[in-house]
Amino acid sequence: MDEQEKELEEILRMFDKAPSPSSERNNQAQMRQNNLQSRQISQKPIDAERTARTSNHTAYKRQPQSSKGRYLSPKRKAAIKRRKRQRAVIVSLFALLIVILIVVLICKGCAGGKKDLSVLQGTWYYDQYTEYEFDGKGNGCMCIDKTNHYEFTYDIDGDTLKVDYALDYVTDCEYTYTVDGDKLTLVGGNGTVEPGKVYELTKQE
Prior knowledge:
- This protein is an alpha+beta fold.
- The chain contains three helices and eight strands, in the order αααββββββββ.
- The chain has helices spanning 3-17, 21-62, 74-118, and strands spanning 122-125, 130-134, 139-144, 148-157, 160-165, 173-180, 183-188, 198-203.
- An eight-stranded antiparallel β-barrel has the order 1-2-3-4-5-6-7-8.
- A hairpin with a 4-residue loop joins β2 (130-134) and β3 (139-144).
- The radius of gyration is 57 Å and the shape is rod-shaped.
- The mean pLDDT is 79.
């Protein structure tokens, strides 16, 4: 076999090995179908992932958050609301108690002061020579023999009568007093001539 025949034989072998046009088209169609299937398979997880991400994002937006950005459970929110309500009630009650206390003290001071001073209002006789006059407003006079008048101001602190004479040479004094109808009992205290001495006075009708 000469060289020409060998070359022809090789060319024919190459033609035998080369794919026919129809088989090549079939191969290309098969490859396209395989690529399409692989895309669809890969697309499904991506779509599922996107759907999950979207739902998670929506759920996250719906979750109530605290001022610090943290999620608050319903129990935690209820506890916070309870504490706020309790705090508001306590503050309101405390303010109300303070107001009531102030009103009671003011009323007691006004009514009590008036009552304490007016309880001695009138003229009280110790004996035929000595009498005490109280105007019920904090002013009075000790009259002896109808001629000697010693004016004073008085105040009452509990059951103590405090007498402050206008004249400097007359000693100011204190008495413990009780009133029973038209009877006034004075017990000598600071500044009196005889501390502890009991003085019985009768009110003039």
